[in-house]
Design goal:
With about 575 residues, this protein is an alpha/beta fold. It has 14 helices and 19 strands. The longest helix has 18 residues, at about 525-540. Mean pLDDT is about 85; it is low at about 5-25 and about 500-579.
Length: about 575
């Protein structure tokens, strides 16, 4: 039987050989998509060219075009990929938050005559394209934002006012087709566009029409890339991509922009999930829904008027899971105070809008980023794309949590389930350290379900027995999690009971000859073995003969790992619950 030390050696050896360790670079996002992405048949999530559902595990990287050199950008992408991220949000022009805005780190400006769209600088935009190309090589989806600013006085907004409509149309064509050293953006299959930013146009029609012309002429020039919008939070529950009526027919992706105040995340996400283009004013497209993601909420380290403490990790987990389970079934963007603007205060540059900024490289492995890595691993282990939010039609058709606890009824517990009855998730946010009891309605499940509590701060499961799919059941969370908070995710899995899948509480360590200690095995080994299998498949699809590669040295080095790897993976599966 493998020892714990042997398991660690196996995991590290396979990970190093496969290039999965972030410090080595070279790795692609786990489950990297076949771009371009499209919309699923039910229109509630994205799929790649193979029909594989794509969940956006995203990072706010707004200032990357201006604040990072290409080498720094590569390091940033490699780190985020190693943490499970597969999506970033970047401003194509950064007018404010970079060391020398709007210039990039090479000193190239987007327009050779300041703010004049007719003088687009090929060298600058070619530099942005290089970064997008690197993201593509790593399997990363790029939400490329044309940031139009908050209003008068913001450079992005003022440029929309000062340029003629012809200039705006020309810029749209240029961004699509390029010129000279810049080959245009329309050929990048990993790009979607986000129009606007933090401002809903009303009587200011000139800048609105200029921005619309840029988008329109990109489409006319042949861009088929998905589009979304960012119009701030104009009123309660309306921080949506479809808030700007004049852009509605361009919105392929719905999104949620919400904080604790200003309408709240549950209400905004549910409004976006239930948006029906065919019956919406100023829309009318023959579509039943739009895939939706969480675009912006509180960032780690930043405090808004509805919270204190600089948006600690407990708050972030609440925002994220509340959004996902209330309708942001396409994914989410996470953000960190120091990372989105790539703060480097030691060199005199800091975009700090909130106190306490430090160099971004010291914050990229923050508690929130580690939670995102665990979220990414968990999401990949379930059929997330089948989930529908708790609540009456047009949601699941049933309220899953009783006693006023369900977010659809104004409570703080968010839940969603597969209408076919195979999976149910309910997130209980942190209120301190004690256990919390839920009144759960399991009748949406197809049969008796295995119940487990997943700890978002460790990735470990705690067994909660089996729950019948009759009546209302009371289930109690374990209390404090590994981080000392008391937020947990309840997971009901009917299929697991039907197939007699193992259900082991982390507190009851499985005898493994040292492979596991109370279920704390990392997902690295499983990822390494999965990548090994994928690499074998990739070679076979392209005519490689695996036998020709089996030199005695290679066979000895790799095959000696396989028996130990099998033992360790068995125990990792039993303890983690990812079966």
């Amino acid at each position: 039987m493998a020892t714990r030390r042997q398991c660690v050696i196996v995991a590290r050896s396979l990970a190093l050989w496969l290039g999965l360790v972030g410090a080595m670079g070279g790795g692609r996002a786990l489950g990297a998509a076949a771009f371009p992405l499209g919309v699923s048949a039910n229109r509630h999530y994205l799929v790649d060219q193979n029909g594989t559902p794509f969940f956006m595990v995203g990072d706010a990287a707004q200032s990357a075009a201006g604040a990072l050199t290409l080498a720094e950008f590569r390091d940033y992408i490699d780190t985020r990929v190693s943490q499970g991220f597969n999506t970033i949000n970047v401003n194509v022009v950064e007018d404010v938050h970079s060391p020398n805005p709007p210039a990039d780190r090479s000193g190239d400006r987007p327009f050779t005559s300041a703010g004049d769209f007719s003088t687009a600088n090929d060298t600058y935009f070619a530099g942005v394209a290089q970064k997008i190309a690197y993201a593509l090589s790593k399997g990363v989806f790029v939400l490329l934002a044309y940031y139009s600013g908050h209003g008068v006085g913001d450079p992005g907004y003022d440029q929309l006012v000062s340029n003629s409509l012809a200039n705006c149309q020309g810029l749209g064509t240029y961004l699509a087709n390029g010129h000279g050293a810049f080959g245009g953006f329309k050929g990048y299959p990993n790009v979607a566009w986000v129009w606007g930013a933090d401002h809903l146009f009303s009587s200011d029609t000139a800048p609105r029409d200029c921005l619309h012309a840029i988008a329109q002429y990109m489409k006319s020039a042949g861009s088929t890339q998905l589009m979304s919008g960012d119009w701030g939070i104009p009123a309660g529950n309306s921080g949506l991509a479809t808030a700007q009526a004049e852009f509605r027919t361009y919105m392929d992706l719905q999104n949620t922009y919400a904080y604790l105040e200003n309408g709240g995340i549950p209400g905004t996400a549910r409004a976006g999930y239930s948006y029906i283009p065919s019956s919406a004013s100023s829309d009318g497209r023959a579509l039943s829904a739009l895939p939706q993601y969480l675009k912006e909420t509180g960032y780690e380290g930043e405090s808004t008027s509805g919270e204190t403490g600089g948006a600690p990790a407990t708050n972030l987990r609440f925002y994220q899971w509340t959004a996902i389970l209330n309708g942001d079934t396409t994914g989410l963007l996470y953000g960190h105070r120091d990372v989105w603007g790539f703060a480097t205060p030691a060199t005199g540059y800091s975009p700090c809008l909130f106190p306490g900024c430090t160099v971004w490289t010291s914050s990229i492995n923050s508690a929130g980023a580690q939670d995102m890595a665990r979220l990414s691993t968990f999401i990949r282990s379930i059929a997330w794309h089948k989930l529908a939010p708790s609540g009456p039609s047009p949601f699941l058709g049933r309220v899953l949590i009783g006693g006023g606890q369900d977010s659809s009824a104004g409570g703080d517990v968010s839940a969603a389930a597969d209408p076919a009855g195979t999976l149910l998730l309910a997130y209980v946010p942190s209120t301190g350290t004690g256990a919390r009891s839920l009144n759960i309605d399991p009748r949406s499940m197809s049969g008796a379900a295995r119940a487990r509590w997943w700890d978002p701060t460790s990735g470990a499961f705690t067994d909660a027995g089996s729950i019948p799919n009759t009546g209302t059941q009371v289930i109690t969370s374990p209390g404090a999690n590994a981080a000392g908070a008391n937020d947990w995710l309840l997971v009901l899995d009917a299929a697991a009971v039907a197939t007699a899948a193992p259900s082991v509480a982390p507190a009851k360590a499985v005898s493994s000859g040292g492979c596991s200690q109370g279920g704390q095995i990392t997902g690295l080994l499983a990822a390494a073995l999965a990548a090994y299998g994928a690499r074998r498949w990739f070679r076979s699809r392209r005519g490689y003969d695996p036998a020709s590669m089996r030199t005695p040295e290679r066979v000895g080095r790799r095959d000696d790992l396989r028996p130990l790897a099998g033992q360790c993976l068995h125990h990792a599966e039993a303890n983690s619950g990812f079966v």
